[in-house]
Design a protein that fits this description.
alpha/beta; 13 helices; 39% helix
Length: 344
């Protein structure tokens, strides 16, 4: 009941104000009032035991401020970030918009965050023993030909504190970031991060799996190229997908909202994200780890992701709209369907 009242109250506020208040609440003792038990449905992937296959996508807790509170919501894993080497304010406000009629959100946040050093301290302070991912990106002022340095810097700072790292080169809200998904720029970036991963393992004795988060807006040829490069470089998995810059004709929200620039998430992303998931699974092969995110608003949406080849799923907009009960509903459905049988 408290969670429902809190969610309705937050939805009456401007989107970014509501988000900031939610992070503060989850960072406080109030988080105990919305706690949900973690459903046990373990999945082994990348050498990690995930208590259940439903995680929180990056972008909700960019700085690691609410790890403890989020750990009480029933997630099988939590991904924080996107974080960059240096703090940056992101794009001008307003930059976050609800499309309530469409169960969707448009954001053009622009990697607003307090920087990797701040996040590292938050992770160290958190009393969290579960599976943690850290999503890393580049600063806006860093030119693409130097982008690998930003990813390497963040990887070196974060690798010992988390279970996996995600390389984000697919946000539409940092100028030219998606160019890193193409051709030689992608090859150079992947090779640089992989070399860092192996060097960190040699130095520390800890192997930290690294994944790439991809866009749903790539054409099939670009997508197939990406998958082949990610696999051949020795990366450990793919997260598909990020938000889309496309605007489906099915959108029914006010034109002033639909026309906002930025990445669209939520229900309208579902079809496009699933098409990407299918193609990635087809070309990545049966055993390559895939985390699926994009458009999961109810438990059946999540089930379909597994049927299309996902090993794990993540929530963002669905969590914002439906709350922690959605995590429980998905896991109960997956338990009844036997998640292991759904694995590719």
């Amino acid at each position: 009941m408290f969670e429902l009242i809190a969610r309705k109250t937050l939805q009456a506020l401007p989107a970014e104000t509501a988000h900031d208040l939610a992070i503060k609440a989850l960072s406080s003792p109030l988080a105990a009032l919305t706690a949900y038990p973690q459903v046990q449905n373990p999945v082994e992937l990348m050498g990690i035991t995930f208590p259940n296959p439903v995680g929180l996508a990056a972008g909700f807790d960019k700085n690691g401020d609410a790890i403890n509170g989020l750990s009480r919501q029933g997630f099988g894993f939590i991904e924080i970030g996107t974080i960059t080497p240096k703090p940056q304010p992101g794009n001008d406000k307003p930059r976050l918009f609800r499309l309530s009629c469409d169960n969707a959100i448009i954001n053009r946040m622009g990697f607003n965050n307090k920087g990797i050093d701040y996040l590292v301290e938050q992770v160290k302070k958190a009393d969290f023993k579960g599976v943690l991912g850290i999503n890393i990106g580049k600063n806006k002022v860093t030119p693409n030909d130097q982008a690998v340095d930003d990813y390497v810097h963040c990887f070196e700072k974060a690798h010992s504190l988390c279970d996996y790292i995600t390389v984000n080169i697919s946000s539409p809200n940092t100028p030219d970031l998606r160019e890193l998904q193409n051709d030689q720029a992608l090859v150079n970036l992947l090779q640089g991060v992989k070399a860092t991963q192996l060097a960190c393992e040699k130095q520390s004795g800890k192997y930290t799996p690294v994944l790439v988060k991809i866009s749903p807006d790539q054409n099939p040829e670009q997508l197939i190229f990406m998958v082949k490069q990610i696999k051949s470089t020795g990366f450990d998995g793919i997260i598909c997908t990020n938000t889309t810059i496309a605007r489906p004709t099915s959108l029914s929200s006010a034109p002033g909202l639909i026309e906002q620039t930025g990445g669209l998430s939520g229900q309208p992303l579902y079809k496009k994200a699933n098409e990407t998931l299918q193609l990635v699974r087809q070309h990545a092969g049966k055993n390559f780890p895939i985390i699926a995110v994009g458009g999961i608003i109810d438990k059946e949406d999540a089930l379909e992701k597994f049927k299309l080849g996902a090993n794990l799923v993540q929530l963002y907009t669905g969590f914002v709209l439906k709350g922690s009960s959605l995590i429980k509903q998905i896991n109960e459905l997956l338990n009844s369907e036997n998640t292991q049988k759904l694995q590719p």
